[in-house]
């Protein structure tokens, strides 16, 4: 008997229709995307790899995804999990923000079934599109109970939501987990897990996604002053993530503005723009009241910090969360 997999379609490149088969770059100009049912039909997966239950959620570009969409996705996944006939869940998603959605869902879904996010770098109608292969690999992964929890499957690789990031605007192998690599591979029908993923010590209530507080990212560069940071504070930011230079350091002017933000009651997390490697709990960070971001990149640090603040966590608990994940 074939496994039964729910497929939630949110749009993105994997569902996009270009002007012709050679339209691989500007296919968003048509703003045309197929729904989940049509996508499954066009890829020919139904009854071949699994019994797929299409769920039409959105047909949007992933740059338009909101916190409300995350909440509704989490709610949908939790409802699907309650059905004992469903073996796993696949979410088709645009690659622009796929890593953010995967990370957000991984923080709120304490789930016993696989939840696999996938997308494609080329539109459904493009020559040598990766849409079919990525969707097939994701369905196979979702059929494997060993992958309980949230993962990203793309280009025949299984990635942790914590570490995966998009590293190229166009290439099929754009999604990488710098520093650690994938947790497994899809080789034809075989799902091979080569290392275990550390489980979160606790999960946030998914209802928190409905009303996340403002958290901004300040990106460091030579000559960066504190204007952006001061503007974020003035706009009502309750948290700021500093996307610092390689070691996880901001400019002197930014450091001054960050200290002022901390004094004003804003929680500041120091991350690194390298998206890999550890930001240590340095003496500077401790003296400045700044939370060390561990190995969480700026975009994902923003999500974790926002959830902590929505939950009502103070500085000490937020530091614990960043050390734990």
Q: How would you characterize the overall build of this protein?
A:
With 325 residues, this protein is an alpha/beta fold. The protein starts with a strand and ends with a helix. The chain has an eight-stranded mixed sheet, with helices on both faces. It has a four-stranded parallel sheet with strand order 11-12-13-14, sandwiched between helices. It has a two-stranded antiparallel sheet with strand order 7-8. Helix 3 packs parallel to helix 8 (298-311) and helix 8 (298-311) packs across helix 9 (315-324). The chain has helices spanning 36-43, 67-81, 98-108, 131-142, 227-234, 252-263, 283-288, 298-311, 315-324; strands spanning 4-11, 51-60, 88-92, 114-118, 149-154, 157-159, 165-166, 175-176, 184-187, 190-193, 215-219, 239-244, 267-272, 291-292. The mean pLDDT is 95. Strand 5 (149-154) and strand 6 (157-159) form a beta hairpin. 30% of the residues lie in helices and 21% in strands. The longest helix has 15 residues, at 67-81.
Question: Quick gist of this model?
Answer:
The chain is of the alpha/beta class and 325 residues long. The chain has nine helices and 14 strands. Strand 3, helix 3 and strand 4 form a beta-alpha-beta unit.
Structural topology:
Layout: E1 4-11, H1 36-43, E2 51-60, H2 67-81, E3 88-92, H3 98-108, E4 114-118, H4 131-142, E5 149-154, E6 157-159, E7 165-166, E8 175-176, E9 184-187, E10 190-193, E11 215-219, H5 227-234, E12 239-244, H6 252-263, E13 267-272, H7 283-288, E14 291-292, H8 298-311, H9 315-324
Parallel strand pairs: 1-2, 1-3, 3-4, 4-5, 11-12, 12-13, 13-14
Antiparallel strand pairs: 5-6, 6-9, 7-8, 9-10
Helix pairs in contact: 3-8, 5-6, 8-9
């Amino acid at each position: 008997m074939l496994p039964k997999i729910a497929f939630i379609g949110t749009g993105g490149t994997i569902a996009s229709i270009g002007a012709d088969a050679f339209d691989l770059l500007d296919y968003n100009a048509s703003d045309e995307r197929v729904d989940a049912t049509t996508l499954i039909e066009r890829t020919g997966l139904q009854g071949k790899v699994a019994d797929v239950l299409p769920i039409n959620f959105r047909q949007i570009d992933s740059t338009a995804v909101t916190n409300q969409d995350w909440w509704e996705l989490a709610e949908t996944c939790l409802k699907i999990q309650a059905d004992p006939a469903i073996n796993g869940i696949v979410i088709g998603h645009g690659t622009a923000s796929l890593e953010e959605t995967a990370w957000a869902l991984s923080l709120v879904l304490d789930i016993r079934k696989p939840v696999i996010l996938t997308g494609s770098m080329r539109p459904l109608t493009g020559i040598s599109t990766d849409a079919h292969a990525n969707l097939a690999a994701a369905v196979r992964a979702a059929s494997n109970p060993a992958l309980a929890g949230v993962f990203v499957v793309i280009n025949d690789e299984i990635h942790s939501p914590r570490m995966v990031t998009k590293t190229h605007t166009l290439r099929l192998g754009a999604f990488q987990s710098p520093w650690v690599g994938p947790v497994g591979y899809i080789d034809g029908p075989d799902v091979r897990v080569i290392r275990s993923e550390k489980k979160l010590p606790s999960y946030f209530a998914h209802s928190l996604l409905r009303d996340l507080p403002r958290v901004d990212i300040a990106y460091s560069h030579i000559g960066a002053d504190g204007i952006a940071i001061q503007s974020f504070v003035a706009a009502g930011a309750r948290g700021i993530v500093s996307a610092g230079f390689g070691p996880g350091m901001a400019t002197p002017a930014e450091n001054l503005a960050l200290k002022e933000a901390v004094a004003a009651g804003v929680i500041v997390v120091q991350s690194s723009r390298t998206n890999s490697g550890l930001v240590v709990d340095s003496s500077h960070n401790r003296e400045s009241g700044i939370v060390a971001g561990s190995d969480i990149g700026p975009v994902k640090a923003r999500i974790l910090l926002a959830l902590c603040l929505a939950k009502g966590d103070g500085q000490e608990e937020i530091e614990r969360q960043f050390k734990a994940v």
